[in-house]
Amino acid sequence: MTLLPDTMKAAVLGEPGQIRVRELPVPRPGPEDVLVRVRRASLCGTDVKIRSRDFFADGGPPPGGFVPGHEYAGVVAAVGETVEEFQIGDRVVTEAHRGCMRCVTCLRGGYTDCLNYGRRERGHRAQGMTVNGGFAEYALNHVSTLCRLPEGLSFDAGVVLTTAGTVMHAFGVLADVLAGARVAVLGPGPIGLLAVQVARELGAEFVALAGTRESRLALGRAFGSDLVVNVHDPDAVAQVRTLSGGHGADIVLECSGAAPAVDDALRMVRRGGRVVLVGFFDEPVTADLNHAVMNGITIHTVRGEGAGSLARAVSLAGRGRLATEDLVTHHFPLEAVAEAFDTYAERRGDALKVMLDISDHVPG
């Protein structure tokens, strides 16, 4: 039986724009909980909004105690009394969202859109968003939010799989076989670059990637994109339409979160095609919805790695079908969390996935 320490190091929110490391009590698992000794955690755009407190409608929790971090992997350190699915020492990757599992949305599998969002007393949790997350030596998860990490996959790879889960969710809402489809992806960040890979693995006939950073577009080409275009080119939309059968793509994933990209997506997709909005936008978006109506274009949205999509991403990666570690560009110790945030937010060194190396030693 592993003896747990009383305290741990954790990165906590301060005033807007500030994050620092302090000592917090190690949480103890309830009956259905699993305590994870965090090995790796990564930053994403949502974390930057959480640090600035733009994420919280009410200003967020008071400074000094809230732990962000919703993308992390580690080792099971303790389990609750009813947990049989995992044992101490298991390597796991975590899912951010746990719905209340009692509202109509959760019962239909849409737990990322839980009607009791933020209400812990009703069973809802969103790691690092409504409850403490993984920028700490230990994190508490409900047993349903864990997947076992296959042998051969590193903790770096496991963390990136949470992003791959978002991509699986985005394709999953289409409720259709992707084989033979022509797909365009807007935004060559981690989500977009994984979308290229997943589209290929699911049998897409043609994949285009559009963005602005040439280094990332080059990665997309290496990952199997048939066409890469710079969205600043005046004929970028025409190139995608021409090379995806002349009528446009069957499916467009908007992964950039850039406001102008919504109109680009609507014009890249064919009549009767489908657009999935995956990226989060920093501002209200104005788009030509009349074009969508007149051309029978269906617009979907997804949030996070819902509908069990993380498990599907883990399965795909476990067979060696996803290049997740290739997206990791930076590593920082937990004590340098502020520098890690600045590196990610400012895209220093063309940062893609920025990792926090939280613990390389797991006590037996």
TrEMBL record:
Superkingdom as given in the UniProt entry: Bacteria
GO molecular function: oxidoreductase activity; zinc ion binding
Pfam family membership, one: ADH_zinc_N
Enoyl reductase (ER) domain span: 14-356
UniProt-listed InterPro entries: ADH-like_C, ADH-like_N, ADH_Zn_CS, ER, GroES-like_sf, NAD(P)-bd_dom_sf, Zn_alcohol_dh
Cofactors: Zn(2+)
Record keywords: Metal-binding, Oxidoreductase, Zinc
Keyword Metal-binding attributed: yes
Entry similarity comment: Belongs to the zinc-containing alcohol dehydrogenase family.
Descriptive protein name: Zinc-binding dehydrogenase
Organism: Herbidospora solisilvae
